[in-house]
Amino acid sequence: MKKYILQLVFTIVLLLAMAPVSAQNYATHAVKEGETLKSISQKYRVTPYSILQANKEIKSASDVKENTILIIPLNGKPIKDKEDTKKEEQEEEEVKPIRFMRHRVKRRETIFGLTQKYNISEDQLKRYNTRLYSEPLERRMVLQIPVFPEVDPDEEKELDFEVYTVQPKETRWSIAHKYGISVDSLLVLNPELDKNNNYLAAGEELKLPRPKGDSLKEQKTEIFTSYTVPPKMTLYSLGREYGIPTDSIVRLNPEIVKEGGLKEGMVVRLPKKKDDEGEVNTENFIFYEVKPKQNIFRITQNLKITRDELFRLNPALENGLKAGMVLKLPKEKAADLEVKNALVLDKINLVDSINVENRPKLVFMLPFRLDKVNVADAEKAEELIKNRRDLALSLGFYTGAMVALDSIKKMGVSVDVKTYDTQLDQTKVKEILFRENLNGVSAIIGPLASGPLDEVAVQASAKDIPVIAPISSDSKLSHSNVFFSVPRDVVLREKMLSYMEKIHKDENIIIIADSTHQVAHDSILSKFPAAQIAKVIDNKSLHLDEFLVQLSEEKENWVFLETDQPNMVASVTSILNSANTAAISDEETVEINVRMFTTSFNAAFEDDAVSKTHLSNLKFTYPSFYRESVNDSFTKAYSRKYNGVLPDRYAVRGFDVTMDVLLKLAYKDNLFETSKYIGLTEYAGNGFDYFNDWTSGYFNRACFIMEYDNLEIKEVEPKDDIKSNL
Predict the structure, then answer these.
(1) Are 71 and 26 in contact (CB under 8 A)?
(2) Using the 8-state DSSP alphabet, how is residue 333 labeled?
(3) Which residue would you say has higher pLDDT here, 324 or 431?
(4) Less CB within 10 Å around the terminal CB: N or C of the chain?
(5) Where would I find the LysM domain in this sequence (predicted)?
């Protein structure tokens, strides 16, 4: 009983405090089906503008939708809180009319027409003709028209923008989301930004649109929602739930006073609960750029997010979905989506996305060594090809590339191709670049050697031409236009260690590493601190007795072998294989299980001295940027083109690199642009997932975990969710 009396007293005090609100004579209106802003204004005999002024979340007539709760100022005056009144007074003090003009209202003239004629706002007209707040505009009415000082158009234009300083961990997408603009608009406002990458440096200054009448930090755009009052709900508990004062609820819903308090079933409007998830940057969110013709349903399905959560994080969606809009998503969603530089990528089937109007212009620069090969002497030419790796690689690569050109032609895409023999000579490369016109070239594939590659990259950079390095994984120089198609050692190592960390339980881990592989040794130890270190003698062999003691008879043994010496690989694999064999043949011996791994796979493991049977018995597992060709259509096409010859590894790589470039150029004839939106692509034996390291270039992160199994090499982690692009 006492609680009820206190609640009643509180309600009476609140109603008395809100009494001045009722004196202002406002009403609320729930928009019904078929009603428009104009029809509602006519019903209450007020102007549409006054309704918009009283409902600041409504930006235009199109935003007045069914079930929207509107406040109607019955005397035509918009509701103003103290902050608005203070702001108006400040504006009035800052900009005052320099004089007034007299205007006699003519037949059929309207307030809107007068504001357009004299370039003033409706508020300015009424402020100096107060009778218009309560009386309609009538013929022969004499008005005083304020004349304001002229503003320099350039100065006024600058006032519409502000300088924004980029904060750490912010991206173009996070800033575009914060300001409610598209990334394209951001680039238009800041033409100095590089269009070929997305890099932003902390501290960099950008020109961005200033929210009207306020700065971004102080801007408060309220978006309201309809709320049906449940049983036993009080103003106090409602205010606490939505985090707003009770007097604000009453001011938004004047009918509460008229009805004598909050009633069950009453429909009121309340500010939507604000998202307070922290700063908008790459540490807290990932981002998605809306594409043309997308709808909310499809976006929620693709991004695996509920409609309510999407709208909560992106209140601007209340005003409609627009192409180019940047949406923010919870950081944890990255685990289920393909994300690149904090941007969610659409899964695009490049074959289905070809634009046949694109006509790429491709240049190959490879060392065919025509200066050395005598084609008239077939025997000597064949011998030279066998003995020169660069020549074998170039010819194999190019034969695969020709199959890719045949394939893209069948898809309806025309390609202009030029091929140059670099002769593995940097001087020859300079001569070619000086002689040939590279204008309009879409991409250059090659050269192989680092020196010629650097020369081509520098010249091509001046013309914004991308260069694809067929076998290089890095360069001593920084080239923002080079795509390194072979993953770096650190990428392969991290891939391998991440895989092993995921499958590791309580295995006994031993590291065998020579002095030239200290980085691999340290990386393994950082992932597995309990690992044992095997003693290596003179970088050539194991201290056998000490090593055998390190093998466990109770747990499975995982042995990392890090070396590039074939003899050491052959010796260690033989020792490990013997340990497994001894355990199997001797019934009294406790079984010893050994598996062998490496994080730095190289030619030593493929040397003829290394037994493939031993590797298979040890289930040898390693990271690789290459896997055995899984594309029968390519193998068949290659065999048909070259009279039954099967493609080698170089031919597969030539096909894959060239096909990847051609499909991306056929999708959008700009490899830099395409790289922003295309994630992992896979072909016959290679995958490509380029990461833009800004000034250093684009680096491929796609690699595979391979394992010897029954004398076959198989991929351990096939990506079932990502289909090949062929």
Answers:
(1) yes
(2) G
(3) 431
(4) N
(5) 27-72, 162-208, 225-270
